[in-house]
Specification:
By secondary structure, the chain is mostly beta strands. The chain has 5 helices and 22 strands.
């Protein structure tokens, strides 16, 4: 056989092998769904340790498209400071003005709507500056939920009086006033703002003895329209999660992570559910609409180790853990998310679809190994 024929046969067989390998690889790829999660979404909230009181110097935030820029210059580095606000669009100032509050975790939408929350000084305190001109921290007495339109006028300013029961004042040197905001984010369409708020069950009313009664705190989710400023719905967290009330510290239960799901008016949430019988924590993952309707949930019972008192005294809580290692994430595809199960060492991918009738469907479409960074 001539050498050229041998080379031709060898080349033909090699090409056939390569084609077969490509076909097998494509078949395996079609059977095994792969994805890349996004660890830092522009509109997510991971509950950080603490209670939302963040004294600030200048802060600048951009809208998602970076068309609008909001700059806030506080007069004092305190949570109750007044501040100068400036909104710019395409290199020109759309509005500028002074407000009597300093927005915490502010944002600005692609329509130029600014929103946030603030802790205002007591009515009897005229300024956040002392007579000598130095900045001083005053006790917050008003929680304000604020939305500003494209001219800087208030679409809404919901004011909730803060209080601390007298019993707690005598027990703790610096008790946390309520209500306070634990989470704040907007949906992907930037039409609804959602606030997770901790407040006293019985409000701030005094009893016949003149003291504010001690009651357990409750957590509520309030959903506001960013277009009209109207309060759409207020829902207790236990109703949103579909669970009974548990007597546990807020850092140890309830929703601790939330994400606005891209391409939809939905929120993905991760909650802790303590199991005091087995000394474990379970996880509940839910998908809810931007009006607080729960559409889907998945439980991972006993997924986390119980936080024993020595860890608690050292300040290690689940809120700390998931602030640095989220259990929920989006992907680069719209209407897609993944959740992470620590005990199973598994990451699960879900797709969200909507029927012609408007019904939402959440389906598992893939799994892959997941190795937690911490035990």
């Amino acid at each position: 056989m001539r050498k050229s024929h041998v080379l031709w046969i060898y080349a033909t067989v090699s090409v056939a092998c390569i084609v077969s390998a490509i076909v097998v690889a494509l078949r395996l790829a079609s059977e095994t769904r792969t994805w890349r999660s996004v660890e830092s979404e522009p509109n997510s909230w991971r509950r950080r340790p603490g209670y939302g009181f963040e004294p600030r110097t200048r802060i600048t935030v951009w809208s998602r498209s970076r068309e609008f820029k909001l700059t806030i210059d506080p007069d004092c580095v305190t949570t109750t400071s007044t501040a100068e606000y400036t909104v710019e669009a395409t290199n020109h100032i759309t509005w500028q003005g002074r407000k009597g509050y300093l927005l915490q975790k502010p944002l600005i939408t692609d329509r130029g709507i600014a929103a946030g929350f603030a802790y205002e000084a007591a009515e009897s305190v005229p300024s956040a500056k002392a007579d000598n001109g130095n900045c001083v921290e005053t006790n917050s007495s008003i929680l304000s939920v604020v939305m500003l339109d494209t001219a800087g006028d208030e679409i809404a300013n919901y004011r909730y009086r803060q209080c601390v029961p007298d019993v707690l004042i005598n027990m703790y040197p610096a008790p946390i006033p309520r209500p306070f905001v634990m989470q704040f984010l907007v949906d992907a369409s930037e039409s609804v703002a959602a606030f997770q708020i901790s407040e006293w069950n019985d409000g701030c009313e005094q009893d016949s003895s003149g003291e504010t009664p001690l009651s357990l705190p409750r957590t509520v989710w309030r959903f506001y329209s960013l277009i009209t400023g109207r309060l759409l719905v207020s829902k207790e967290e236990e109703v949103l999660l579909g669970r009974s009330r548990d007597s546990c510290p807020e850092d140890f239960c309830g929703v601790i992570e939330s994400i606005a799901v891209s391409g939809s008016p939905l929120f993905l949430m991760h909650a802790l559910l303590p199991d005091n019988t087995n000394f474990e924590y379970g996880a509940r993952f839910i998908v809810a609409t931007n009006t607080g309707q729960r559409l889907w949930s998945l439980d991972a019972l006993g997924d986390y180790e119980y936080m024993q008192p020595p860890n608690v005294s050292n300040g290690i809580t689940p809120a700390h853990l998931f602030a640095n290692e989220p259990a929920i994430a989006l992907t680069h595809e719209p209407r897609q998310f993944c959740i992470r199960l620590r005990r199973e060492r598994t990451e699960i991918l879900f797709d969200i679809t909507q029927s012609t009738e408007g019904n939402w469907n959440i389906d598992e479409v893939g799994r892959r190994p997941y190795l937690p960074q911490s035990p």
